[in-house]
Design goal:
Blueprint: H1 5-9, H2 20-29, E1 31-35, E2 40-42, E3 50-56, E4 59-62, E5 73-75, E6 80-81, H3 83-88, E7 95-98, E8 102-108, H4 109-116, H5 120-151, H6 155-162
Antiparallel strand pairs: 1-8, 2-7, 3-6, 3-8, 4-5, 4-7
Length: 163
């Protein structure tokens, strides 16, 4: 038996906390889209006005540095993305590109904030999720900085090259 789109969306925290009425409001507030493989859904550096809930297919998450063609994470059905830019009112930190044909539920920022910022369980869950993602992003940037500093020649290396 095939899993319904709503079951996939509500399969993970914090959205699994929604009750029947809230789930109905949620489903009334999203629009569904299908995208082909290779399409960019969100682009790093742009302001965000939508949050996406992956219902079918897979996406790759790409950072602008150091190798924008190498995914740093993969998204699968039940995952959501684009929320960091909405919650913090900042530019998008990553690019999300489809790895296969995907189907997403998309919700604009006003509806997202209206539906979820009044539910303490969702606010708490989103806050925890946001902090987790921000921590992962900071760790990734730290690792990239460490790798970049290792590649830079030190003083002794420069001296050896001169001699």
């Amino acid at each position: 038996m095939e899993t319904s789109e709503s079951e996939i969306i509500f399969s993970k925290e914090p959205f699994s906390f929604l009750d029947g009425k809230e789930r109905g409001l949620f489903m009334d507030s999203v629009r569904f889209f299908t995208f082909a493989a290779g399409e960019i859904l969100i682009r790093s550096g742009e302001m965000g006005n939508m949050v996406y809930f992956l219902v079918r297919g897979e996406c790759g998450v790409f950072m602008p540095e150091p190798a924008p063609q190498t995914p740093v994470a993969k998204l699968a059905p039940g995952d959501f993305f684009g929320e960091m830019a909405l919650l913090a009112n900042v530019k998008r930190t990553a690019t999300v590109k489809t790895s296969s044909e995907v189907r997403v539920a998309a919700m604009d920022s006003q509806k997202f904030k209206k539906l979820f910022m009044t539910n303490p369980a969702i606010v708490s869950g989103l806050d925890a999720y946001y902090k987790k993602r921000q921590g992962e992003l900071n760790l990734f940037k730290k690792r990239q900085d460490e790798m970049a500093s290792r590649r830079k020649p030190g003083v002794w290396q420069k001296l050896r090259e001169l001699l």
